[in-house]
Every structure is written in structure tokens, then in C-alpha cells.
Amino acid sequence: MARILGVVLPDDKRVEYALTLIFGIGWARSKEILKKSNIDSSVRMKDLSEEQLKTLISNVETFKVEGDLREEINENIKRLREIGSYRGMRHAMGLPTRGQRTKSNARTRKGKKKTVGALTKEAWAKLEQLQKNAK
To answer: β-strand 2-4 against 7-9: which pairing, if any?
Structure first.
């Protein structure tokens, strides 16, 4: 198994796909790296020679990926929070930052639905069941 920047890339996958497993490298950047390295995109990771792997690693290292990229993103979010911008406040509250509606959607950011002020259908069903059992 090849190891690039601390990420273990599976041997049985194509190089083009395996590079996308590195944080900060998508399909377009993967193709760009392979073009610079003169490596065919259909080659499997296990079929790469040591020289090809070295050129691949050197070309990947020219981009900001993995830990450095994550660190930069977290610093940017921290800066937004510190200056008190609208986006920073939305990050702090765990809400969408790019203008999406939150009344009916945004479950990815907000998490599991929490009913406030009323009971959910499941809670009503449990109450009715308890009342029937009590009689």
C-alpha cells in the first residue's frame, strides 16, 4: 500500500481515484497531478514503479492538502468568529452560513430534530399506550 502525506492509498484502486482520498484533492486536481507526473489515469496503485510514486508524491506536495489545509480552514473560521461577523456567528451556532433556509431544512448542520413546546407523534403514541396500560 502506498502512503502519501500520511494517507494510505489502496493498491487495488486506480491512481486517479486513489488520489481523491487525500483531503484537498478532487477529481480535477487528481487529473492535473497525473498529467504533470506523466502517469496514465487507468493504472492501478500497485502497478506504479518507485520512480512514478516519487514524482507523484512531489507533485502532490506542491498543493496545500491534508493537515495544512484543515488548519487553514479552521483558522479562517476562528478569525470569522473573533471579528464577530455574521458568518462567524452562524458557525458558532452550528447553522448554515451561506443563506440557506432553516425553517424546514438544514438538518445536516442543525442535527436531529428537537421538538419544542409540543409533543412529537412518537411521544403522543407512548402517552396513549401508557394510559391504556394504566386502565
So the answer is: antiparallel
Average pLDDT taken over every residue of the chain: 90
Burial class from Cβ neighbours inside 10 Å (0-12, 13-18, 19+) for residue 30 reads buried
Q: How many domains does the chain have?
A: 1
pTM: 0.73
CATH code, domain with 26: 1.10.8.50
2 CB contacts (<8 Å, ≥6 apart)?
8, 9, 11, 18, 45, 48, 53
Looking at the DSSP assignment, which residues form a beta bridge with residue 4? 7
57 is a domain residue: yes
Range of the domain at 47: 2-62
Distances from the Cα of 112 to the Cα of 14, 47, 105, 109, angstroms: 37, 45, 11, 9
Q: What are phi and psi of 110, to 5 degrees?
A: -85, -20
DSSP state of 10: P
The tens digit of pLDDT for each residue in 75-94 reads 999 999 999 999 999 999 99
Residue with cell 497525473: 34
